[in-house]
């Protein structure tokens, strides 16, 4: 199994009252404590954060996007630069997605066949063909620690027949992705699709786990379905995945969802939420979201959060941040991003601590809900 030697996953603690667990994911570019939140660096950069500042927020692993990097600057340029780690100046582990989600959500689709997908680029309309083999070829060139099998992510509104077809196609593409994978220093994860149909999710889980990937992802969630539907899907799939392999739920990042999904046994998360919110003047705190353009902060000379150790909270006030946001200064998004990413890393750190202490249920029950984390201060 190519890629298996690139990954060693060790479970260290398991919660008695739920499926929550802690572990260590050893990868070629470092060890990652799980559960972990991965900031999203779509274009080979996490927006508004240098790699040095990103590390200071507590981030240990990030995500980059195969589709976007293949279009610009091109996988060949990144490979010639020494790989994605060297190209973007990030020394820690990286995960690249397969590009499948972006093909189906951003591109002007032309034709889906058994071979792959032909589509028009959302940038210039150029016709491009992406197959499992080509997706893996690109990801091998990029050189991330964890790469993803090429899959079809059907819309959550798709008919049952369309979802069933996508499950079968994804299974065939997973086999071809495995066959195309040519690097022992990259771990290839399989993806379980199936939409909102529990029986199709179970079928997909059986098909994908039979291929014996070193890790697994639940795809096709957080794409417009309700939070309750998303939780049901994950609760259906996760018990069917091998206990000794890392589990990744793709694109999930609301704090309330993260807490629930950790309780369901999820190990890896990614989402653009903290960085996108920061650029739009919404900052996370244990008391909820703060809208920093609010006039109430014009003379508020305290940090965003008093006990936060991020660079922003150590050096600046809410009043100053409001000034930056209302003046549309570039520094506003930078400082907001550093705070939000630190908040998310702090949340995951507290979750890991609660699991290790056997107090996850206490944390979960004390969780206020929404995006309010007053209980953070008690751990």
The computed structural class is alpha/beta
Describe the main β-sheet briefly.
Answer: 8 strands, parallel, barrel
Number of beta-strand segments: 16
Number of helices: 15
Give the integer mean of the pLDDT values: 94
Q: Which spans have pLDDT < 50 for at least 5 consecutive residues?
A: none
Assign the CATH architecture of the largest domain: Alpha-Beta Barrel
- Shape label: globular
Tell me the distance between the termini.
Answer: 41 Å
Radius of gyration: 20 Å
Provide the β-strand percentage band.
15-25%
CATH fold description of the largest domain: TIM Barrel
Secondary structure: helix percent: 25-40%
Q: Care to describe what's here?
A:
- The chain is α/β, with parallel strands linked by helices.
- The chain has two domains: 238 residues, Alpha-Beta Barrel (TIM Barrel), CATH 3.20.20.105; 101 residues, no CATH class.
- α7 packs parallel to α8.
- 52% of the residues are buried.
